[in-house]
Amino acid sequence: MTVRCTDDERRAEVARPGSGFNGIDWVEVDAADQKLLRVGFLHPLPGQPDGVPTGAAPAAGNVVVEGGVRITGVRVLSVSAAGAELTVRVDRAGDFSPYTLRLVRSAVDDRVPAGFDPVLAEATFSFKANCPSDLDPAPAAPAGPAPRPAGAPADYLAKDYAGFRRLMLDRVAALPGWAERNPADPLITVVEALAHVADRLSYRQDAAGTEAYLGTARSRISVRRHARLLDYAVHDGCAARAWLSVRVTAGSDAETQGIPAGTPVLAADRATPAVPAADAVALLAGGATGFETLTALTPRASRNEIALHVWGGRDCCLPAGAVGATLLDQPATGLAPGDLLLLEEVVSPATGRRADADPTRRQVVRLTSVRPGTDPVARVNVLEVGWSAADRLAFPLTVTAPVAGSGTDHLVTCAVARANVVAAQHAIGVRGQLPPAEETRWRPLLTAEPVAAATPFPADTPASQALTQDPRAALPLIRLETTEGSWRPRRDLLNADRFDQGFVPEREGDGRVVLRFGDDVSGRRPPAGTVFEVTWWRGGGAAGNLGHDALTTLVTDRSGVLAVTNPLPAVGGTDPEDTEHARQHAPVAFGTQERAVTTADWVAAALRLPEVDNATARIRWTGSWWTVFFTLDLRGGQRLAGEPGLARRLAGRLDRFRVAGYDLQLRDPVDLPVELRLWVCVTPGAFRSDVRRALLDLFSDRDLPDGSRGFFHPDRFSFGTPLYLSQLLAAAVTVPGVTDVRVTELHPVGVAPGGELTARVLRAGDTEVIRLDNDPSVPEHGILHLDLVGGL
User: Fold this and answer.
1) How far apart are CA 355 and CA 344, in angstroms?
2) For 571-588, what is each residue's pLDDT tens digit?
3) Residue ranges of domains in the chain
4) What angle do CA 292, 293, 295 make, to 5 degrees?
5) Whole-angstrom distance, CA of residue 382 vs CA of residue 293
6) How far apart are CA 516 and CA 525, in angstroms?
7) What is the phi-psi region of residue 231: left when phi exceeds 0, alpha when psi lies from -120 to 50, beta otherwise?
8) What is the mean pLDDT of the chain?
9) DSSP, res 243
10) What is the 3-state secondary structure (H, E, C) of 67-121?
11) Percentage of residues in the chain with pLDDT exceeding 90?
12) Long-range contacts of the stretch 161-168 (C-beta < 8 A, 24+)
């Protein structure tokens, strides 16, 4: 009896090494000579190395070809074995019908040879398999098992409401007494209720396993918790911040009463610069973007526009890198250290028109010094103001300039200063009340709207750094108040004690924010029935990165506001971290170095600070403890000694890398002042004065008007950076009018030459930085001598 199956497991079993049986794997008809057959076996044939079974090689009498319609009686003439392949020669080629090649023991014994599988001892083939045909070459599918009786099979893939409903309706369709399909039918209602319950149970069943692993979790809250256990903080975004400039009327309510912190300012197209709170609600509902001031501001009309004093000059500018200016103090402005000052181009120096003023020529600085004075010639009061090197002017700011085509007598004031400046944040406060706390685990839903997150605003840092935020350090802006005190948001409750009144805001992927409280072990559990007064701030994300002059409407009932705007674009707005991004980066977060033990660790930690260009560290025993001595090369030639509080701020940021028992000491690099003398041959016809001026600019330590840097700019040299003669010569010959140049003197100031010209290099020590300021007042900071010959 022949049995047909739909699988081929027997072939795999026979082909397994060590099975002890052999069998036919395939039959191939030679395309050029159809009387030549090649038969492949699962193992090497008898008579071959490792043959299965052992014994004599197959002979012509062991192979039989049967079948055929027109051509029958095909005889085997000869066979030859080679490995697992048997070549068979027959006396004639068959027709298009199928043939069967069988193995037998002999011509008179048609039993299967010993050691060959009975099922695989024969194979069906066609002599005309390679011949062109209009028919489908695939053989007819063999008869398989008898089909199962028709019915309503259970759908084991049903996992949701629709699937369960369909499954139950298909099942009850077999009941002859139930033919109703009206949605209002009570039995249909029962089916749908059961489908709903099954859907919820199926979700919980899947979620228990799905949310248990970082790689499969779908909930953002689950991914956030998994990542926290891997020491990776999934951030919730960051609110954008911007500087606001306000102008007020003298003696008005806005000047006398001030503008409190938390005052909203909107990006709305309104004709008036101020609107009452009632109108602001409608503007926000209409899609206006809202910010709130971060600190209180006491504006003065005298600070609306402050002239930059030029001491009688005509075509004047503040150069790039400037860290101070002179302001006209009439009327009195009352400026003090810590105030914010906006330097702004208000008229184009090229056209003399306000509309052509460059909006990128604006910068906010925080004053570090204010010194009153007078101009005895002009008989006016002035203020000498200064700011930190971190706030140094990023561009040359033209103060006064002649209008093109109007002659030299017509000068225009191109830049002014403004001092009614305050920081604002993309967040609008919303107040409400949470439902009473419950006895069981309480996870109240705060809102489904975006909640802003931010870091505390630093009120004493330079203005260039005040708006910078780290999204991973930002916390959602939520405040809870009860009769017993305030509750503050935390990143997690892992280190909280049982008295800590903190909570963790957790943002889901759809924007919902859930509040998680403690359990009286890690964080305090709110007593049952506690009612929280909640204040949260709506906003945040990249949508708050508005362009300049977008915030133009102040929400206040106080009169006297003339204008409000953001002179610079808002910065820092960041969307919440994507779940997939966290899933990819959390597993490798442990590789980030967050502690410093060796000197290399300390140097790497220092280089993370944006103010640091390079650093060296040495660890020494100071008698009672270990001390890490830092030498910091700050950007722009900044020095710790010249910036009050800078060393304290940098040490505070490095302290998080410090291990117990170590102290930190920060110091400036050791200057290596250079005395340099160049002999320069000037091209005939060139003016020596022009060449001298160009060389002095080239070998200066400042930013040049064309945006390039002088050769001895502080950021071009760091610890141990050598000074090669070839660099000096290559730079000097680029100056127009220079035909030849030679270095005739090169050595540290006050030190006799030590073979630097012979070695053609001046080398600096590990903590030394080459310096050449070429300031006659302080020659100990480096001197440049120029000996020019030729020219005019």
Assistant:
1) 14
2) 999 999 999 999 999 999
3) 9-125, 161-210, 235-300+420-576, 305-419, 593-667, 670-790
4) 145
5) 30
6) 10
7) left
8) 89
9) E
10) ECCCCCCCCEEEEEEECCEEEEEECCCCCCCCEEEEECCECCECCCCCCECCHHH
11) 60
12) 161/195, 161/196, 161/198, 161/199, 162/195, 164/194, 164/195, 164/198, 164/199, 164/202, 165/191, 165/192, 165/195, 168/194, 168/195
> What pLDDT is attached to residue 244?
97
3-state secondary structure of 1: coil
Placement of tokens 């009286």 in the chain: 520
The fold for domain 9-125 equals Immunoglobulin-like (2.60.40)
> Can you give the pLDDT at residue 2?
44
Tokens 């505390």 label which residue?
456
Local structure of 461: helix, strand or coil = coil
Q: How many CA atoms lie within 13 A of 248 on its CB side?
A: 27
Backbone angles phi, psi at 487, to 5 degrees: -120, 135
Could you tell me the two tokens for 596?
Answer: 């410093």
Is residue 357 over pLDDT 50? yes
Q: How far apart are the first and last CA of the chain?
A: 119
Token readout for 487 is 């509750």
pLDDT in tens, 626-671: 999 989 888 888 888 877 778 888 888 888 888 888 999 899 899 8
- pTM (2 d.p.): 0.68
d(CA 558, CA 760): 71
| Alpha-carbon Rg for the chain in angstroms | 44
Residues 310 and 350: their CA atoms lie apart, in Å, by: 19
Residue showing tokens 């084991």: 156
On the question of a common fold for 9-125 and 593-667, the answer reads no
Residues 6 or more apart whose CB falls under 8 angstroms from that of 636 comprise 321, 389, 392, 714, 715
Question: 10 Å Cβ neighbour count for 30?
Answer: 13
Q: What burial class does residue 631 get, using C-beta atoms within 10 Å of its C-beta: 0-12 exposed, 13-18 middle, 19+ buried?
A: buried
Helix (H) or strand (E) holding 665: strand 662-667
Q: Which two tokens stand for residue 405?
A: 């085509």
Q: What are 138's two structure tokens?
A: 């695939």
Query: What is the crossing angle of helices 186-210 and 161-172, to 10°?
Result: 140
pLDDT band, very low/low/confident/very high, at 404 (cuts 50, 70, 90) = low
The architecture in CATH of the region 593-667 reads 2-Layer Sandwich (3.30)
Residue 618 tokens read as 């040495």
> Are the C-beta atoms of residues 354 and 347 closer than 8 Å to each other?
yes
C-alpha span between 419 and 387 (Å, rounded): 14
For residue 1, pLDDT beyond 60: no
Q: How many CB atoms lie within 10 A of CB 308?
A: 20
Residue 680: exposure state from Cβ atoms within 10 A (0-12, 13-18, ≥19): buried
Q: For residue 114, with 0-12 CB atoms within 10 Å meaning exposed, 13-18 middle and 19 or more buried, which class applies?
A: exposed
Beta strand ranges found along 175-251 (DSSP E): 241-248
